[in-house]
UniProtKB/TrEMBL annotation, chains A, B, C, D:
This is Isopentenyl-diphosphate delta-isomerase. Its main location: cytoplasm. The keyword Magnesium applies. It comes from Natrinema pellirubrum (strain DSM 15624 / CIP 106293 / JCM 10476 / NCIMB 786 / 157). Homooctamer. Dimer of tetramers.
């Protein structure tokens, strides 16, 4: 996910994909296990007329489901991106690319194709690019526009992954001036930008800063799903870096649980994507009930993608059917209605939210 | 429990009974595990004088226990219904029939007998019929009266089972206009109507609508007992329908826990039956303490019923003895007194109820 | 513990002792696991000067520890009572006898000796007799005085055990007029009376009635220790009484947890003994911190008693040393000080007490 | 940790070290598991510029990490102290010595060297001495100054370990007049004093008394790490002292959890060290977020110390790297900033703190 603009980046990308496929890289505790939607025994709806479509940054999506930013930047990933893009295109949902840094910095047609394949097979889908916040700081706006142009992106995701960088021995751990860079790009870029975490969540305070900086959407990517600290701990073990392995393991579970992060962000921004451990259409429904515009999944799409577009489509249709079922039994004919459905918060997530809400109140005063 | 008015219905009924008998079709978490009745060390009562009788829709029942709607519509179920009805009759409790759709739509004496046997062996018992809300919408009032007449019903239960329908590949998932149909039948039918769920519970909001529609009683049939999503997941597996199996499994635990649903409904209606995972006379006592008029059980009666009336009577007498013991040690000489006994709510059920109560307050204002 | 005034009583007593010794007859969850005394790192006390003595109903006890009512009424229990009484005498703590009904109703010197042995070996100890509330109702005051005289009792415990009676096939389940009988005996008897439960606890409401009836002390005997429902379930199994076995098992855990019951009772009476699952001197300390005057134990003394007085003394000295240690590290030089020490309530017990306190408030208003 | 001023002390010290190394002497439940720091996805900091240095009692420390008081007083411990001191010196953190009583009372060069070695190898480090509160009471100020001079101490830690003393058969259990002695030494000694527990924590009330007595710092040494009751239980088992073994085991978990104790103490004193079960740099970060000035660890340094200075340095650098990572991802460039970072309290620690805070409020009024 991170890269130093060399073929080193390419190899790391390969490492990451392999670790994600072979090791246990998921945590638990998104907080959605503490969110209970209230059953509506009398939905007064026709299931077949339920419409999960949303408008997102001016585009119509058939369902509030995002294939989260994952890959690109290595020839091996071309097939994965082709499958994901074709599936996004056929089902009408959004898809994010993995970091485009390698595409901007390496002069290699094979690498480039791992990105461009996406727009080739999905001319009309909502596709968004990806760069790290640290890159924004270094690139001028023309370079950022090249990333957009590379895939005719509908939007650009800017990822925040400072914990991962801190666990990587070679990580870029200078976090200064990123907010200013984000603000600049948000103002000048030809497409809207989505700021996203990568598995540790976004707090209300950060969401407030991002809102003020003019960011068009926030993707929380909270705790409970893929853990990049965990992934880097495996890499550090292989590289015989015991201290980094130790830190990666210690921070494996670090972050704001996705449900809590979503609740914090929706108080500050009106276009929030909930991701990080979202695994079913029911999770998507819960995310929307607590205020998100959509839910995103990364890892669950990786294995189907290696099996081709049909497997990805199958998975998306599962998710949509699960979501529609949740909509049906909460009496929600549309995503707008689902956003207003009743829910109950329990356990640790309730404690988390109660305390954060009262301390946020203190911040406001 | 659902049926498309053909012999397909008959076969499905058979499938269901078999699955219920052979597989794990029960969830946990009715919420009664979080309800603690307060011991009265000095009950100042004669156990033998404790009277668990109630008045229900104008009839006297010897105890606040319902044999919930289960079966009928297949020749194989005649013996089951005969045993249940004889037991209800001898012990003086209420009994519900399974859905009568097959009885109305099929022209088959064997099928019909599976219903009529009930009144034959229990001329004086409180027996109530059963139709789906979707059927009410389609039938005119004369057809509904035929269902009543079929068994000289004392009341008609109208079941809501939209989640089950959504899990069934062949399910009827049009939920529109059911409330209006219920209102119409409640006004016009010759006997009172009981609206019931089938394992996912009824919320306060729905109870309010049902009250306004003139429904005479509500049976919550909440989460924690028999799970129809779970049952349909098994059927889907057999039918090689992986998506439906997946959804059935995902929603296996869906619903409002029975104790919470009871607390929500009693705030909106004064005649509430608590069912869904009620398994002992102590559960019945708890249900009444939190405000229900009676408790109902379905699955626990199925196996005894296949062994004949005596086994069912034995089971009912167990339940009554358990209930009377709970009445004794809470110092409750009557069901009215039991309804006023002290209780404590803990754990998740307390969280659930606290939040729903405060949000209901918001709804009211 | 119960008896019908015949040698049947004697046999049952024997059954009970055997079951208590051989089977699992203890529950968990006294609530003391949720009570945390606050450490005092600077106690400013000399451990050797800590004085755990209390005054109890006009007598001085060396420590606030009661050997709870257990046995008598069978020749086999004479040795047990001798050991307990000798230990009580040597250590200066209080001892209760088991029910004296057999002693009053049977004309048998061996049976009588099982009681009288206590005063023989412990001429100066605080010894209290025991009768059931149901007996008080039947006996005139002279008969009750005979029970007192039998052992020159310093007080009389009146036990409430209606749940046990309800589980016993042959139980006395008429609970009427017990309060009036208690009030009469409290007023007329030559010695004070202690009303005690036997493992299911006493609520605030009951404590209030007992206070008004002039009872001199209340022994909560709450949930969390020996379970008489459980014991009777074993007896019912042997006697082939499946329904009673079922009820005994269902109500095995019934009752108010000892810590919660203590908190409820101390709000209504100023002389409360906490018992039911008290197992260590630390439990005794917690009981006192939440407001009890003393803690009592039954089952833990049974096995030592079968090994003779020294084993019982050893056990009592263990308890006192544990209690003194708790007093030391809470900076409590006396039982009075311990009663004022800081504590924290957590978990289910906190929930229990919070709700009961707020509902008691409603009762008051 | 305790000593009677004879070679008996020396042997016990040896016993203790051996038990700590060979047996399970750690409890769980520091409360830090319930403290959740809030992730800052946009730290706007350069990791390399993060400065974990603190000022402590007028000295600059490179990081807020204390090697807690452990050993000395036996020739075998010289090597351990040498390793710890060298590591403290090279990394710039603070180190406490074990109790100096043996050094003051035994006339033995080998014993003395086990202390003096520390200053020999760490001429500039912040090193603090150690005496028990009971000793302060017995020694005149000149004797206490000898302990300071022995190692040219920068401060003196006074330990409170009354629970341990109560568990030891030979313990000194007279706790009187310790506060006065502490007050006297705090006023007269040439260096500041730190009052510390040894694993059971310090309450708000005690912290208030210590503040009033002029103590310069408080080290909570709360529950959750090394348990001296547990250690003494092992010793009692070996010494065939069943009652002491029983008490040690019963009080194994006794005490105020470290996080709760820290929160109580920081309300009363502005220089608090959190210790007792601190195991990682993330624990140190949490301790600081809830208000501590620094975190201390004892047992985790023991094994590395037996392997020499490099192993200890390695461990310290791990801790610092973990702490810096926590600072980075909470956006805290300095320890001051970390003290203001947002956190959430959950579970038992939240319950503990809520109740203690409200009762403290009562104390104040
Ligand atoms: C294999 C893989 C590669 C990823 N690469 C990127 C990336 O390049 N850029 C990015 O912003 N996030 C990346 N992510 C993070 C995801 O976009 C997402 O935020 C995170 O994995 C949480 O979602 P999940 O639990 O559904 O996997 C990647 C995730 C995975 C699993
Ligand atoms: C075998 C079986 C058949 C059922 N059939 C019906 C039915 O036809 N109509 C209906 O309203 N409910 C039906 N139910 C649902 C029950 O009435 C009840 O609401 C639900 O099972 C929860 O109760 P339980 O947990 O005690 O089984 C059936 C339940 C079972 C177990
Ligand atoms: C063997 C045994 C016999 C008992 N007999 C009596 C009795 O005769 N009268 C009575 O009031 N309680 C009796 N009890 C109840 C105890 O006094 C006590 O209230 C109860 O056992 C809870 O304490 P424990 O958990 O420490 O055993 C008996 C208890 C035991 C274990
Ligand atoms: C081997 C060992 C020896 C100790 N000796 C002393 C001592 O002499 N004086 C003292 O104040 N504390 C002593 N302690 C207690 C520690 O300073 C510390 O307060 C306690 O162990 C909790 O920290 P931990 O959980 O990190 O071990 C000792 C601890 C250990 C493990």
């Amino acid at each position: 996910m991170t890269e130093q603009g060399s073929s080193e980046t390419e190899d790391r990308k390969d490492d990451h994909i392999r670790i994600v496929q072979e090791r246990d890289v998921e945590t638990t505790g998104t907080g959605f296990e503490d969110v209970h939607l209230v059953h509506d025994a009398l939905p007064e709806l026709d299931y077949d007329a339920i419409d999960p479509a949303i408008e997102f940054l001016g585009h119509e999506l058939s369902a509030p489901i995002f294939i989260e930013s994952m890959t690109g930047g290595h020839r091996n990933t071309t097939a994965i991106n082709r499958a994901l893009a074709r599936a996004a295109s056929e089902t009408g949902i959004a898809m994010g690319l993995g970091s485009q840094r390698a595409g901007l910095e390496l002069d290699d047609d094979g690498v480039l194709e791992s990105y461009t394949v996406v727009r080739d097979v999905a001319p009309d889908a909502f596709i968004y690019g990806n760069l790290g916040a640290a890159q924004l700081r270094e690139y001028d706006i023309e370079t950022v526009e090249r990333a957009v142009a590379m895939i005719e992106a509908d939007a650009l995701a800017v990822h925040l992954n400072f914990l991962q960088e801190a666990v990587q021995p070679e990580g870029d751990v200078d976090g200064r001036d990123c907010l200013a860079a984000i603000e600049r790009v948000a103002a000048d870029l030809s497409v809207p930008i989505i700021v996203k975490e990568t598995g540790n969540g976004i707090s209300g305070e950060t969401a407030r800063k991002l809102s003020a900086a003019g960011v068009h959407a926030i993707d929380v990517a909270g705790k409970g799903g893929t853990t990049w600290s965990g992934i880097e701990a495996y890499r550090a073990a292989t590289a015989n870096e015991p201290r980094q392995q130790r830190i990666g393991t210690l921070f494996r579970d670090w972050g704001i649980p996705t449900a809590a992060s979503t609740l914090e962000c929706v108080a500050e921004h009106d276009c929030v994507i909930a991701s990080g451990g979202v695994r079913t259409g029911l999770d998507v429904a819960k995310a929307i009930a607590v205020g998100a515009r959509a839910g995103g999944l990364a890892k669950p799409f990786l294995k189907p993608a290696t099996n081709g577009p049909d497997a990805v489509i199958e998975r998306i249709e599962d998710l949509i059917a699960e979501l529609r079922t949740a909509m049906f039994v909460t009496g929600s004919g549309s995503i707008d209605a689902l956003q207003r459905t009743e829910y109950v918060l329990q356990g640790e997530t309730r404690e988390y939210v109660e305390q954060r809400t009262s301390s946020e109140k203190q911040l406001d005063s």
